[in-house]
Write a structure and sequence with these properties.
Helix content: 25-40%
CATH class of the largest domain: Mainly Alpha
Number of domains: 2
Strand order of the largest sheet: 3-4-5-7-6
Distance between the termini: 25 Å
Largest sheet: 5 strands, antiparallel
Oligomer: single chain
CATH architecture of the largest domain: Orthogonal Bundle
Radius of gyration: 21 Å
Shape: globular
Strand content: 15-25%
Length: 347
Amino acid sequence: MEVEDVKISRKKPIYPVAPGLFKYLKLYQRDGKLPMSYFDLLNFQETMPVVDKFGNDTLWETPLYPPYLQDQLYEGLKIIYAQLKASGNTRIVQHKIIDRIEYCAFGNTRPFRVRIINRLNDVYDYFYIKQADASRIYGLELEEILSPNQVNYIYDRDTLVEEHIVGIPGDLFSKGRMYTPDYNQTRIAKEFVKFNERCIISLLGDMRAYNFVMQITPDFDDFQFRIRAIDFDQQFFEGNPKVYMPQFFKENFAYVKLSMEHLTEKTVLQYQQEERSSIVHRVRSERHRIKDLRDASKTQQLSTEENIKQLREGYAVFHQNENYHKCKTMTDIVELNVKNVIRQVKL
């Protein structure tokens, strides 16, 4: 493994949801009728910066709304939360209040983060309101199909609502928590290898440490670790193959270093094979869904011709497989990745 300063596009264009993808989302019940849209939340007058407990800028801002508008927005957000968590059953929000809304102009989809609190016990939760972006939706769907993780979201016209993914931000984990004496360093390194493999196959790009979280589960004799992506904006857009390989980002150096210290070439290959086998099992059980997703993707643009050409040539070299030169779209490359994994597992 190695790291370098991989360059990516600063602002990927937002691709609208084409009819084929909309039909797919209705078929798999990912669509909904929301009481308000993403653009309703943009009607703020000014913002205040949000800082962490150490006084550092978080890149999030608190939007300030007129009182009459704030009441309307908060009521709509409670209904959206009920739709996301309980199929619209508003009984779950009877004792909940919207504590705050935060806005990030830094991200591609300029998301809003909403904090909702139960007044009876002060337990809180988060959810996100974002601009609907076809690339991001494909990323969420591939995460559902190809990874061990489930994702929960709702799409309505120009708006995407996403559930909060719990975990320790990857950059914060690598700065201290990673070296907790009770944590098995080899298990952490193993999970990074598997995560790296999933990204390469599904073409999930820009997985720098601050774009994923570490989930830690106590087991009866140890701790289990899982890395989960939280940002899907760079789903199969870039042409540089290294964008889809977390091992090359300098922000992930701590994970690469840990893997080099605790794993051998033989064990890395073993863990890569384990992840490929898991992906094959998932593809077999979701073969109809992944076919429908592939068919939907063929009806719209998701990257540039230049990026597609660069990536298929790069993957042809990386995998030593000339069949990549026949790929005409980014999803053709994903499909060939999956077919190659199936063939490798059968060998």
